[in-house]
Amino acid sequence: MTGPHELAWRLLHALLCLHRALSARLRARFGAWTWAWRRCCRAAAAVVLAPLGFVRREPPAPGRPRRHPVRARAGSAGLARLRWRSDGRALRKLPVHVGLMLTEDERSLPDVASLVVWAMAVGISYISVYDHQGIFKRNNSRLMDEILKQQQELLGPDCSKYSSEFANSNDKDDQVFNCHLAVKVLSPEDGKADIVRAAQDFCRLVARQQQRPEDLDVDMLDSLMTLCLPT
């Protein structure tokens, strides 16, 4: 078996040497044609891919500085603002309050912050973020910092046009940011104390004979819960 294997390797080596020699000769003789063929291929690719939205980026000329990354981010932020405004105009009915329920195992602060900033841009007034595991509530300050960071980067000069509040449902003091959106971070523990207070209020009304026990229904409980919510 050594003889056939050795013969095969020698044959492959000879073919490789022949290929290299032929390629070098063709490049030396038809170098100009090769350059023209490459230009034609690039032009054809541009014609085919342009209708699909693909744009070929030419490399910078020798000695020409590359695009600054900060300016590149600023340009992408401007495009994001334009896209978000068009999203707001495309909505037939703009919701006043949007609820976000996180169900994935991996919680991403930048993703939630990006959604909050998008809500600012389109003009939504309130957004509630519910996390069943309570991770966001325990890291509320990090979420606030991420929202403020993306707000400044993506909204840019438009950020100064808004002034509203960003508040956690458990915080006694509302923290004011330059935005037009009130954000509530919720967990499974939220709402239990409000239900207790609503029940206590209704019992006091019954004791004062201002209400009867049979008056308690969904609408009554809803009104009592609304009175218990922090302003």
Automatic annotation (TrEMBL):
Tell me what organism the protein belongs to. Answer: Heterocephalus glaber (Naked mole rat)
Q: What is its EC number?
A: 2.5.1.87
Q: Which cofactor does it need?
A: Mg(2+)
Upper classification of the source organism reads: Eukaryota, Metazoa, Chordata, Craniata, Vertebrata
- Chemical reaction(s) catalysed: n isopentenyl diphosphate + (2E,6E)-farnesyl diphosphate = a di-trans,poly-cis-polyprenyl diphosphate + n diphosphate
Q: SUPFAM superfamilies under this entry? A: Undecaprenyl diphosphate synthase
Transmembrane helix keyword on record: yes
Tell me what this protein is called. ditrans,polycis-polyprenyl diphosphate synthase [(2E,6E)-farnesyldiphosphate specific]
This protein's pathway = Protein modification; protein glycosylation
What PANTHER family does the record tag this protein with? DEHYDRODOLICHYL DIPHOSPHATE SYNTHASE COMPLEX SUBUNIT NUS1
| Keyword Membrane among UniProt keywords | yes
Instruction: Give the signal peptide, or none.
Output: 1-23
What family classification does the UniProt entry report for this protein?
A: Belongs to the UPP synthase family.
Any one of the GO CC terms: dehydrodolichyl diphosphate synthase complex
Indicate where this protein resides in the cell.
Endoplasmic reticulum membrane
Alphabetically list the UniProt keywords. Endoplasmic reticulum, Magnesium, Membrane, Signal, Transferase, Transmembrane, Transmembrane helix
* An example molecular function term from Gene Ontology annotations: ditrans,polycis-polyprenyl diphosphate synthase [(2E,6E)-farnesyl diphosphate specific] activity
